[in-house]
Amino acid sequence: MPASRVTYAFLGPEGTFTEAALLQVPGAAHARRVPASNVNAALDKVREGSADAAMVPIENSVEGGVTATLDAIASGQELRIVREVLVPISFVLVTRPGVRLQDIRRVSTHGHAWAQCRLWMDAHLPDAEYVPGSSTAAAAVGLLAEDCHYDAAICAPLVADEQPGLSALARDIGDNPDAVTRFILVSRPGILPQRTGADKTTVVVPLPEDRPGALMEILDQFASRGVNLSRIESRPTGQYLGHYFFSIDADGHLADARLADALAGLHRISPATRFLGSYPRADQQETVVEPHTSDAAFRAARAWVAGLQPGPARTENGSAASPTA
Q1: DSSP state of 250
Q2: 40 and 183 share one domain
């Protein structure tokens, strides 16, 4: 499909870190890009068919998993992750022209951005009240509304530099200068991206029974097959207190025998396991595979087992001979 006919949804408005991540996708700069007010709205556009794919944040190097995304892709109509993108994160404090630092009483931004600027805020605006925003860009643009009820916003430098009517009071206010956010491009189920040797697989595994050793049984499916886990987070299912699912990133691709075997084991333990996709790693770091967990080792092991149970003896015309013949 020509890029001009592809529609991408993203956590908006324009100028978010999410749009910056989307623009790293080949062809996205010339495609139709539709901002969404929240993660669920972006993913719903994919589910209903009004968008071909959606870019949403899933993990931050400082704050960990983005719970809104983890929950949204764990339920409802199944979706597939087809790509991940890493974006270095920096923050600026913006206001309307004429507002001074000492005038600021309320500051709006996304929750993850607020958490990543705690030290600067404590040092420079210790008494400022936090006003939750749907995104960093939405908080910044909201300053321009006549009925805005806060004095400043924390957002990306791009918004501060390109949005008329905003003034940057402070730059690089993040606590960690090396902060990175991981974004995922999500589409409807289809053909998986090809295996590259530097891949990641994401699954959601409901805890089938809350008992001693239940989590260990899940983890053993990966460990016994030499599959490394790069992320595991628990989230409540929302059904009953104490009911959880685990969101897991594993090194490898569904086409890898060791990973396919691990997923089969997971399904036996937890039949409601949800496969969310196998896709290339953004850092292109190749997966280290021990010789005994390679595809060749799995093929050799299956051939050995098959050889232990030879088929029935055959007569001259090819039919199975009687056991007593």
Answers
A1: E
A2: yes
> Quick one: tokens of 183?
């974004």
Domain of 275, CATH number, reads 3.30.70.260
Q: Return the exposure string of 66-100: e unless at least 16 CB atoms fall within 10 Å of the residue's CB, then b.
A: bbbbbbbbbeeeebbbbbbbbbebebbbbbeeeee
Q: What is the 3-state secondary structure (H, E, C) of 204-220?
A: EEECCCCCCCHHHHHHH
What CA dihedral angle connects 202, 208, 209 and 213, to 10 degrees? -40
- Centre a 10 Å sphere on the Cβ of residue 304 and count the other Cβ atoms it contains: 9
- Predicted pLDDT of residue 5: 81
Dihedral of the alpha carbons of 248, 250, 254, 257, in degrees to the nearest 10: -130
pLDDT digits (tens, 9 = 90+) for 39-87: 999 999 999 999 999 999 999 887 788 888 999 999 899 999 999 999 9
**pTM for this prediction:** 0.82
| DSSP of 216-246 | HHHHHHHHTTT--EEEEEEEE-SSSTT-EEE
Residue 263 covered by a domain: yes
Residues 138 and 230 in one domain: no
Indicate the number of domains in the chain: 3
Hey, what are 195's tokens? Answer: 């295996």
Orientation angle between helical segments 39-48 and 67-74, nearest 10 degrees = 30
Task: Indicate which CATH number applies to the domain containing 96.
Answer: 3.40.190.10
Helix H or strand E segment including 136: helix 136-142
Instruction: Output the furthest CA–CA distance in the chain (Å, rounded).
Output: 101
pLDDT digits (tens, 9 = 90+) for 125-154: 999 999 999 888 889 999 999 889 999 999
Strand (E) or helix (H) holding 40? helix 39-48
- φ, ψ of residue 85 in degrees (nearest 5): -135, 140
Residue 280 lies in a domain: yes
